[in-house]
């Protein structure tokens, strides 16, 4: 029988150890990365870990037939993310589903009723005057604040000038400070009827002394101011739990405390006066690049007729004050998203916020401003609550189903393929290890959550992986039936088996990709897992199964066709090897002399 051709195939046959070393090193590296990331187990979805899944359907307001669009839906997702995170939930997911649905997945340990109330209500956006502010947490220097100006103004200083948001750079303490006493006086003045809820009047001592109509109201205002001052002094915005509770229960007509990040990324705490302008007073907002003065990105706002009057009134009062009481805070759901200062009364119904914005920051602020007047309401379509016990039972059942499927495949391989199962079973284990490690890494990387359909996809993948081994083994057996010895049979069978495996896996991957694209929700978990395991099947067959088969083909147990090797020529009905024989020579008559 002719020897196999030399060249690439012979080289690959003689160096199978390199492929085995490559895949084992890859598994070790991925496993090390998994433990270094601090996530040694895959992230579980709501149906396995327990939690609440809320489906919200967007509805158009009357007169706004085209309000449901990608921009508005993405803005709604951003707002709901802020709300859910404000509940102290670190693993909550908010994502769009289709064109008009939003799915909110909140894991166990969260008050589901509070979460439903938070995500289902309209965003609350207010413009409040700043009474006092300082950097919260560790001591830090004051940071610049963007400025607000009328869009009709031609003065560059009104558009790009930056000033410090606070002259204080010290950490807040529990002791009384001069700033604390000034804040208390401002709160007292601001809470009186004659103060008109303005920062200007709150800064005036005379207003504070003359605004009290009676001793009772004065005492009540003093008690409220003292209470708010205590909250402000104790507030540490660097603490996530305190940020979530800052200003909790306060009304739009009451002074409050709030937190927000300044332009340096530091947490800042605020004392804010009553709301002067609400989000419904904003007609539109957009992020534009200032090409005239080259001041960079800015946010333009257009107010309604009623909002224009309110905004002109409050900016006129703020412009007369000193920093920080010439600032107004844009407060979204209790968080300060911007705190521009004012240099003049902004009239005409248009205004702009300028400063050291980049494109992303400007667009984010514009979207938040628009959401206050977003013509969208959300209806709660469905709420699914899975307890931790039920999720654990489903996970346990899924693992049992996977173990049963794997056990049946192993039994089949041992009974039918005998010694070849020593190749198939380690290949299945390598495929399972790669799948587990990659799923664990995808959790913190892209937010992949292992749900029940994804577990089903992993179970189906056991059959796909085993099918690749069967194709390869049967090709080898076909070559042995033709009368070839094992080593040439392995090398001749591989090109044919490889082609079949690639075509089969390509069809499976294409089906998984189509399913992932056209479906939404949990079905995507099944499609993603199926596609991932299909790709890993190709990797395992090429870099583990084939090299391992090449190495074992050199062993006498397999090369001699032992009856327990699964490659016994007699059991396979192999043809006897073809042997060339010489033809008998015809008798030659002796020549006569």
UniProtKB/TrEMBL annotation:
<feature type="transmembrane region" description="Helical">
    <location>
        <begin position="448"/>
        <end position="473"/>
    </location>
</feature>
<dbReference type="InterPro" id="IPR005791">
    <property type="entry name" value="SecD"/>
</dbReference>
<dbReference type="InterPro" id="IPR022813">
    <property type="entry name" value="SecD/SecF_arch_bac"/>
</dbReference>
<dbReference type="Pfam" id="PF02355">
    <property type="entry name" value="SecD_SecF_C"/>
</dbReference>
<feature type="region of interest" description="Disordered">
    <location>
        <begin position="137"/>
        <end position="216"/>
    </location>
</feature>
<feature type="transmembrane region" description="Helical">
    <location>
        <begin position="422"/>
        <end position="442"/>
    </location>
</feature>
<keyword id="KW-0813">Transport</keyword>
<dbReference type="GO" id="GO:0065002">
    <property type="term" value="P:intracellular protein transmembrane transport"/>
</dbReference>
<feature type="domain" description="Protein translocase subunit SecDF P1">
    <location>
        <begin position="73"/>
        <end position="130"/>
    </location>
</feature>
<dbReference type="InterPro" id="IPR022646">
    <property type="entry name" value="SecD/SecF_CS"/>
</dbReference>
<feature type="region of interest" description="Disordered">
    <location>
        <begin position="567"/>
        <end position="593"/>
    </location>
</feature>
<feature type="transmembrane region" description="Helical">
    <location>
        <begin position="501"/>
        <end position="520"/>
    </location>
</feature>
<dbReference type="GO" id="GO:0015450">
    <property type="term" value="F:protein-transporting ATPase activity"/>
</dbReference>
<dbReference type="Pfam" id="PF07549">
    <property type="entry name" value="Sec_GG"/>
</dbReference>
<dbReference type="GO" id="GO:0006605">
    <property type="term" value="P:protein targeting"/>
</dbReference>
<dbReference type="GO" id="GO:0043952">
    <property type="term" value="P:protein transport by the Sec complex"/>
</dbReference>
<dbReference type="InterPro" id="IPR054384">
    <property type="entry name" value="SecDF_P1_head"/>
</dbReference>
<dbReference type="InterPro" id="IPR048634">
    <property type="entry name" value="SecD_SecF_C"/>
</dbReference>
<comment type="subunit">
    <text>Forms a complex with SecF. Part of the essential Sec protein translocation apparatus which comprises SecA, SecYEG and auxiliary proteins SecDF. Other proteins may also be involved.</text>
</comment>
<keyword id="KW-0472">Membrane</keyword>
<feature type="compositionally biased region" description="Low complexity">
    <location>
        <begin position="191"/>
        <end position="216"/>
    </location>
</feature>
<comment type="function">
    <text>Part of the Sec protein translocase complex. Interacts with the SecYEG preprotein conducting channel. SecDF uses the proton motive force (PMF) to complete protein translocation after the ATP-dependent function of SecA.</text>
</comment>
<dbReference type="GO" id="GO:0005886">
    <property type="term" value="C:plasma membrane"/>
</dbReference>
<feature type="domain" description="Protein export membrane protein SecD/SecF C-terminal">
    <location>
        <begin position="378"/>
        <end position="554"/>
    </location>
</feature>
<dbReference type="InterPro" id="IPR055344">
    <property type="entry name" value="SecD_SecF_C_bact"/>
</dbReference>
<keyword id="KW-0811">Translocation</keyword>
<keyword id="KW-1133">Transmembrane helix</keyword>
<feature type="domain" description="SecDF P1 head subdomain">
    <location>
        <begin position="268"/>
        <end position="375"/>
    </location>
</feature>
<keyword id="KW-1003">Cell membrane</keyword>
<feature type="transmembrane region" description="Helical">
    <location>
        <begin position="395"/>
        <end position="415"/>
    </location>
</feature>
<dbReference type="InterPro" id="IPR048631">
    <property type="entry name" value="SecD_1st"/>
</dbReference>
<dbReference type="Pfam" id="PF21760">
    <property type="entry name" value="SecD_1st"/>
</dbReference>
<feature type="compositionally biased region" description="Low complexity">
    <location>
        <begin position="163"/>
        <end position="178"/>
    </location>
</feature>
<feature type="transmembrane region" description="Helical">
    <location>
        <begin position="526"/>
        <end position="545"/>
    </location>
</feature>
<comment type="similarity">
    <text>Belongs to the SecD/SecF family. SecD subfamily.</text>
</comment>
<dbReference type="Pfam" id="PF22599">
    <property type="entry name" value="SecDF_P1_head"/>
</dbReference>
<protein>
    <recommendedName>
        <fullName>Protein translocase subunit SecD</fullName>
    </recommendedName>
</protein>
<keyword id="KW-0812">Transmembrane</keyword>
<feature type="transmembrane region" description="Helical">
    <location>
        <begin position="20"/>
        <end position="38"/>
    </location>
</feature>
<keyword id="KW-0653">Protein transport</keyword>
<feature type="compositionally biased region" description="Low complexity">
    <location>
        <begin position="137"/>
        <end position="155"/>
    </location>
</feature>
